[in-house]
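During the practical work, I selected for study one protein's amino acid sequence and its backbone structure tokens, as given directly below:
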Amino acid sequence: MEPGSNFDFQKYFLSASRRNETSRQKHANKEPNVVANKLNDIPEAPQEVKKHLRDVAVESMERIKTAEIKTENQSNDADRASRKRKSETNEKLTEKKEAVMLEPGNRLIPAPLSHIPLKTLLDIETELVYIDEEEISFEFAEVAMPAGRRSAHRGCATTAMSAPSVPRVDKQLQVALWDASDRYRQKNYAVAAAQFATALELCSKGVATGKPFDSSPEDISSIASFIETKLVTCYLKLGKPDLALNHSHRSIFLNPAYFRNHLRQAAVFRCLERYSEAARSAMIADYMYWLTGGTEQHISKLIKLYWQAMIEEAITREESFSVMYTPFVKKIKVDKTDKIKDTFAKKHPDYVEHIYTDPHGLHILPQTTEWSSPPSQQYLLTLGFRNKHIGKILEKLSSRKLPIFSDQKAPFSPITEEESRRHWETVGKKIMPVMDFIRSTKLTDNFCACSHVIEKLHYASILGRLQQVTEQSQVINQAMAELASIPYLQDISQQDAELLQSLMADAMDTLEGRKSDKERVWNKIEKIGIIEDFLYQVEDSYLKNKRLRAARREKMKMKRLQNTQQH
């Protein structure tokens, strides 16, 4: 398939209107009231969830306590940090934000700074992420694929769902999986990871099912996804979330309807301190759990608590912007928007260089979201920035149908390496984190189902120009996981479906290093957007000069009239 060959992206795009780690010392020195202001609009978690967590994962909690005792003996600083952790269950916010490292189950995990304790998050991960799936049938039993997508937004009746049959795994592959699982249960995670990698290689060579010629692509994908997700848990247990990241993306790409794949991706993002992305993964996990027929309320509540914790963590650690959620009832008018800005400025006086309310998208919060009985309470998201320039860029991007990041001043000239590096400094470090946060409470895109994926692929192109191959691969794998999930998250038009297919084909070609005479779809869209921006700038400049000339003529006319009257 030629990349983008069947998609008229120009017509699609032009039809639209013009519409991580930061220093821990900085966090420790932040004023307590600033942290409190950032979190005071977020409701508490339900009490029954907290009660449930006290009764689960006893063995894991004992390991955590043991790790805390070991950590306390290392230094006076660690001692103070441990005392702070113990007081978190009674204090919603701490006076100082300090990060310490625990090592339960061979994992390095930064202590959270929100009022949801670290132990609570570890308990959720023990119950839902690190569950020991001894049999591959475990994956298939829970993934009941829908005959038709449930609509959480229209309240329509849902169609009946039937569980697919479990594929018969090839005997050679089954032995390899059993051996790897035995090593995993023995907590020999390094050997288990190596054996799961061998099993994945066998699967890629066609050794997947007992009857390869009768196997469906879905069967092979599900088996490969099972192996990928086992590699995720192995690397997390080894304290290597960077190695787990691509496996978490690929497990979703291969089996996007399985909620645990998304939750494991959230755990990887949490360990990498990418909390906004962890929040979005948890949100999707909760939605997928409902969509595929999940009925156990306590599981959904645990996922929502995890989602809430990640949102709070992202807000608390972020220094460049702050946010406020306002319950949405009906369409707001201009004067209401002004009142929201005034309220935001009073609550967050350190983030008033540029304030705007996301105009095209209502947000949801885990505390008030109920997928089975839509519509859930929706919120307006208001953002305030310390940097005016960044705030204006974000506001401009939020009004577009398809996102274009480029600051390129000459749209018909090739971009230089220096421009790419400067662009990466702006987009990668300042723009993408904000956009990731915005999407942590926004399940779908309003204008185009693929908007966020195009953002990621633009960013991957920048990384490619800078020869950052590893980072580029991670971003593309993440984009492909998003593309695979989109049809489950929202109804898509025929144009969106064609765009999705073109993006998927080009992303796959890029990831596998296949060259093409044609430009990638997202680069074509970007080029059109740059030209469009250039034309708008020319138009704005012309109209501005026209107004200035008219004003000068009027001024000269008045001056001549005054001189005539004086004589």
Remarks:
- DSSP finds 22 helices and five strands in the chain.
